[in-house]
Amino acid sequence: KDITVDICLGAPDTGLAAIQEFALELAGKLEVEHPNAEITLNATGGTKLMALGFVEFFRGIARSIIYTDTAHLRIETLPDTSGVIPPAQAMADVIDVPLYLAAQGIRFRKAASDNLALRESIQSRKAVAKYLARHAAELDKLIGALNRLADKAFANTDELREPCQQLEFTPYPNSPLGKALKELDTARVLDWKGGSEIIFINIEKTQFLRGGWLEEYAFHIFNDQHPFDVRLGVELTIEAKALTRNEFDVLAAHRNRLLFIECKTLRFNPNENDNELAYKLDSLGTTARGLFGETWLLSARAPTDQLVARLKDTRIRLIDPTELGKLREHVQSWMQAV
Fold first, then answer.
1. What is the CA radius of gyration of the chain?
2. How far apart are CA 269 and CA 253, in angstroms?
3. How many CB atoms lie under 10 A from the CB of residue 217?
């Protein structure tokens, strides 16, 4: 059942007398507008002084006073005037990706994985996406070439203008690069009959080869572990940043925490982009993830020493090509962390 929400802003965060004066005005408003309402005070947020001030004022007025212990997935109920402490309740898994974002002042617009037809296409590429991820460390040359040639195929447009492209090398059929191209051809994400010529098939599959395969891989790995919610290709609007629109590669919500996953298949520039990338990820992650969320960077190509050092100064976990095949274990560990 939908309920209306009235937000009262302006609670002071310092000065106990001022805090309790605000609480007095709020209690009076509730009495006038909702004379028969049962009041529950959530004392979780705000400063410690705010929590203390509201708890002391509403004790005896509120039906119950609760505290959300997110770190331990418990909801504690504070004792009433009798001094009896009710048993703690287990926190239910109730916050999906759109709701979590909304709580952070971010408007969820849509996710690519919510499109049923596209989701079926993504599912059809699951095996080959996992193949590329498992072998990423030995396919660095091919991953870079596919990114570059996919750009050429689009020819600076949104259309597949030049689908026929030439690799700058000729892979031996039984080499790691040749075996990978056979996998891609068998999965019908490109045409390769040997030699240096490859043919991109359509826009969607070319985007997959341009780097979308890593995002789809992350989505599959999370989806296989059955988190509470996981979305691929999330478009959102950040209200606090002048309605800035962004797209997140993969977002997962589990046990009321959010994981923001960024995926990169391009070669990192050691002199120009590393600091910018780390700053962007840290800024977006801080905006979206909240206190208990995390940010991960999945890289299909070896990161520079500069990027590794920069990420150590942030709350961003780097999963490099040698670790991509172990992503399932990382996901399981995150889901079981609490």
1. 25
2. 32
3. 26
Cα–Cα distance measured from residue 128 to residue 207, given in angstroms and rounded to the nearest whole number: 14
What percent of the chain is modeled with pLDDT above 90? 65
- Is-contact 208 189, C-beta < 8 A? yes
Count of CA atoms in the C-beta half-sphere (13 A) of 28: 6
Q: Which of 287, 290, 276 shows the shortest CA–CA distance to 248?
A: 287
3-state secondary structure of 35: coil
Instruction: For helices 116-124 and 126-134, give the axis angle rounded to 10 degrees.
Output: 50
How does DSSP assign 274-305, residue by residue? HHHHHHHHHHHHHHHH-SS-EEEEEESSPPPH
In angstroms, what CA-CA distances link 207 with 189, 202, 214, 217, 220?
A: 10, 9, 11, 14, 17
Q: In sequence order, what are the residues at sequence separation of 6 or more whose Cβ sits closer than 8 angstroms to the Cβ of residue 135? A: 176, 180
The H or E element containing residue 90 is strand 89-90
257 three-class SS: strand
Q: Which of 83, 84, 49, 91 is nearest to 67 (CA)?
A: 91
Contact 118, 112 (CB under 8 A): yes
Assessment of whether the complete model's pTM goes beyond 0.70 = yes
pLDDT per residue as tens digits for the range 266-295:
875 545 567 777 877 888 777 787 777 899
The CA–CA distances, whole Å, from 180 to 117, 127, 140, 214 equal 26, 12, 11, 15
> What element of type H or E holds 200?
strand 197-200
Asked if 225 and 208 touch (Cβ cutoff 8 Å), the reply is no
